[in-house]
Amino acid sequence: MGKAEVGSTKYLSNKMKQKGLTRLRWFCQICEKACRDENAFKMHCQSESHTRRALSVGQNIKQVTDDYSRAFQQEFISLLKTSHGEKEIHANKFYQEVIAKKDHVHLNATRLNGLGGRRRRGGWIWRGRGKKS
User: Fold this and answer.
1) Are residues 40 and 70 in the same domain?
2) Which candidate, 32, 71, 83, 106, has a CA 20 to 30 Å from the CA of 64?
3) Beta strand 27-28 with 33-34: parallel, antiparallel or unpaired?
4) Beta pairing partners, 118
5) Is-contact 94 126, C-beta < 8 A?
6) For 45-87, what is each residue's pLDDT tens digit?
7) Which 3-state string (H, E, C) describes 88-127?
8) Where is the C2H2-type domain (predicted)?
9) Minimal CA–CA distance to 109: which of 46, 56, 43, 31?
């Protein structure tokens, strides 16, 4: 089997696999498992281990979602305070810093609809104290 050509889909897929990071779109927060594509995610969701965990979470889904939300907010605010002090930063740029950590809680696993903050011309802006600006 030969190597994939540079720039091809297979080449890019292999490079992404080597990095260890995958798209957030295919991540199961319950199992903390990242999948490379839709098919892998579908197969994971049909697995016995995922089904077992989903049933246990399903009994107290509100509590689990609240725990994820609380953990995300605490992680977000503490990282914001420590890394940026009182400087302003675009929320999306900062969110990219948050999700760069491999063990972070994903925003789509929380009850939050978005990052909040106040809209400015260039994007969402956050201040380091954890307060919206």
Assistant:
1) no
2) 83
3) antiparallel
4) 125
5) yes
6) 899 999 998 888 888 888 888 888 888 888 888 888 888 877 8
7) EEEHHHHHHHHHCCCCCCCHHHCCCCCCCCEEECCEEEEE
8) 28-50
9) 31
Q: Hey, what are 3's tokens? A: 């190597």
Do 82 and 103 fall within a single domain? yes
Would residue 29 count as lying in a domain? yes
Q: What CATH number does residue 117 fall under?
A: 1.10.10.2030
For residue 86, the 8-state DSSP code is T
Range of the domain at 47: 19-59
Specify the DSSP element, H or E, that contains 28: strand 27-28
The verdict on 117 and 79 lying in the same domain is yes
Crossing angle of helices 48-58/61-84, nearest 10°?
Answer: 100
